[in-house]
Amino acid sequence: MSALHAPAFEIWRESVGIPHIRAKSDAAAWEGLGCMHVRDRLFQMDLTRRRAWLGGRMGRTRGAAR
């Protein structure tokens, strides 16, 4: 986020790691949820994207299924 855009939400975690979001509006809550998804799942989302891309490319190079 840019320095000019102050987030309209606050995120904190319990001692066991459960995130909580407090927001000024529904839109801000969704933005906070998106930030939590990125923090917690960026590696998984990137891996899924790469597997989908490679699956299509590799399928073309492998030829017909046996």
Q: Helix and strand layout, with pairings?
A:
Blueprint: E1 9-13, E2 19-23, H1 26-62
Antiparallel strand pairs: 1-2
Q: What does this molecule look like?
A:
This protein is of the alpha+beta class. It has one domain. Helices cover 56% and strands 15% of the residues. The protein has a two-stranded antiparallel ribbon with strand order 1-2. The chain is elongated. The termini are far apart.
Given helix and strand content, the structural type is alpha+beta
Helix proportion: 55-70%
CA radius of gyration is 19 Å
Alpha carbon gap, first and last residue: 49 Å
Give the total of domains: 1
Strand content: 15-25%
**Arithmetic mean pLDDT:** 83
Shape: elongated
Give the uncertain stretches in residue-range form.
none
The oligomeric state is: single chain
Count the DSSP helices: 1
Q: Mind describing the biggest β-sheet?
A: 2 strands, antiparallel
